[in-house]
Amino acid sequence: MRFPRPLKTGVAVLAVAASLAGVTACGAGSKTGGESAATVACDYPMPAESTTVNVLAYNSSAIDPFTNTMVKSCSRDKVTLKHDPIDFAGQVTKTTATLAGATGSYDVLETYGFVVPGLAEHGDIEPLDDYVAKYADKYKLNALSKEMRESMSYKGKLYGLPMQAQMYVMAYRKDVFDAAGIKPPTTFAEMIDAAKKIQAQGNIKYPIALPWNATADITTNFQAAMNSYGKDFLDSSGKPQFASAEAGKALEQMKSLLPYMDPQVTTFDQPKVQQQMFNGTAAMAIMFSGRMNDLTLPSNTKLASNFAFAAPPAVESGAPYLYSRLSVDGWSIPKNTKLDKDMLFQMMASSVGEDASKASVPAAYPAREGMVSEDSSKYAAAANGTIGKTMPAAGDPKAAPVTNAIRPILVQVITGQLDVQAGMQQMQSIAEKTISGS
Amino acid sequence: MRGREFSVLMGPSLLVMFGLLVVPLVRTIQWSFENVQYGSPGDFVGLSNYAHALTDPRFGRALMFTLLLTVIVTAAILVLGYLIAIGMNGLGKLRPVILGAMLVAYVLPTIVGAVSFSWLFDQNFGGAVNWVIHAITGQDVLWFTETWANRAMIIAHTVWHMLPFSMLMILAGLQGVPNELREAAKIDGANTPKTHLYIIIPTIRGVLGFVCLITIMDVLRTFDNLIALSPQADAIGNESIMLYVFDSAFRDGAQQLGLGSAINVLSIFLIIICLFPFIRGLLKEAKAKA
Fold it and tell me: Could you say which of B99, B112, B124 has the minimum Cβ distance to residue A272?
């Protein structure tokens, strides 16, 4: 059988190109900085058989040091720890899938305070109190922040061993602020005034950069704005608060920033906001602290030396809290893992030990107390200034599904497709339906 | 061929097809009538998943966008693919080089190609297209938040990604057109457009039908490129059916597998309806040749 020549040529070229693409993809899938991770003691009893421990943890500058330390330090002899690169959205999906059945694909999970109550309520993750009591001295676990342990607890039991916390921090261009004669803003009104002065200088069209991505971050930012007024999405009895005056004011305050941000802000996640700062197209940004170290690296941007850091503003003067969220990350053991849970706990504990935590600074803000002093990093003072002025999270298992359910309506309000009052009513109604399960 | 030989040769393929096609299809249909969560048996809910999907305005928007994308991309690929294939057919030694360069767009994983493509329109990552448009018109286009600008970008990417394969198929078809036919047309006084319209296109209509079939099938399943190209797809009416399925069934740990399955079953019907004329045409042609 004879094939036309172009077809043969095309197929040959296709094969070569596919091979090259495959090789490139292999490179892209390599582990993230594991070779430079800290090596710590990871002293667990060796199992009799060869064992693979699968670790699920999303990749970010703040999480990687802990993951890489665990993988590097605890893989020995018959035990191999396996961690594949994954983004946050992928982790969320895989967490749901792996916890659903009698057996799962992962043995150690990265979790965070927002999801712990839901997972604990369903009995998906293991309580860790007994292990903490057993290994408190060996791994000095009492030095892990009490507040952060509470963030990873539900109904008085600890379900996640905290590794690090993230809170909102404001990064700003000190050179631009100095030239305009302005100081870091402490309220949204001051932030708008600062933005106007920077715009007047003529170099930066959209001075404010915030991660308001319509598929994820925008709800966290709305929650931060409501928190600044002392309200959360759900009150202590679990009732939605979207029809409250504070929710309305939070929405109005968020919308007031729009003229000073890129018109496509609802497509910007945190890496894109970082990119705005790297490029010099924005003069101030508010993101989780785990993103701040990247701004200080000259390998990322020529402007690295021009960035300074401050606590984020409150939405308005006299508001009880700052425009911030506190997110505590930690390690959890899935209930359905078939491996020795004692061994898994020791692996987790070693990755949040003193040496590992010290090595994670300045990329992360470790849960272990005394690791971050004002001179630990350029943004340490700002992070320390924020953490005590951030509204504590309520820890309600319904918070996560409600947050996901209201997001499309919130996007419509922010983009002007829906007015604030109508949006508040719709969010309230959707939240009530989500909670009742109808 | 003896029955035993047939079984040995076809058995593995049938087994794979049964495992990877039939079982998932049956399970999808079953789940579409159930309320299903990961790891637990579903509860029968009758047609409520279908009712949910069909009364959800979001499904309507996703359906309309997907159909619009399919029609425009298929038409563009047919016309451009044919024109480029003709040009390519006339090339000499340069043909493999140009063909190879074009195929890179097809070989790249869709999401990788889409991310790179989106950077052409993204000020944060250079935005070469933005720069050119601004230099010419002084205007800035909001490619990611304005519905029609975003659609134009998605269409351009889909055509860029799928065109090389279609062009390659059409080029192979053109190579199969007998020279005698072209010469006869020339002798009869047919000019170039008439030669294409009355001689070449009818001769390769089977190939063109196949290209349509593949393109329609691929575009109706558009999913991963939208992650990069349309970060707020639902909010601006540019969500595809498959993205809607992913959002309902998986995103943010959602567990509406029953609803996702119902939308998939509806999508299968949609694909069959869209492909029916082409499948019928191909079958008729095969029958005529036999």
Answer: B124
